[in-house]
Amino acid sequence: MAMDEYLWMVVLGFIIAFILAFSVGANDVANSFGTAVGSGVVTLRQACILASIFETTGSVLLGAKVGETIRKGIIDVNLYNETVETLMAGEVSAMVGRDDGTTDS
User: Where are the membrane-spanning stretches (predicted)?
Assistant: First the structure.
């Protein structure tokens, strides 16, 4: 399998993952700091700084555990040893179809 052939899928997956992480992080911040900013306990600037620090720290410290859970606890990646492109396409499709429950319907 030539890696150049699937580079577009890696790039697309990165872009989608970045957008999802940004939107989920923004929703987390809105939920945790909304009332504090609304009541005037912290300013919007302070909330953004605190959120940046703690969201980044959380992703750095716990990101590997999430990846390990997906790799070992949810799917058996060894089933896709011969068809890695199928696994890649499935993971990108799962990110595109992801519903994090942050929007009201």
Answer: 6-26
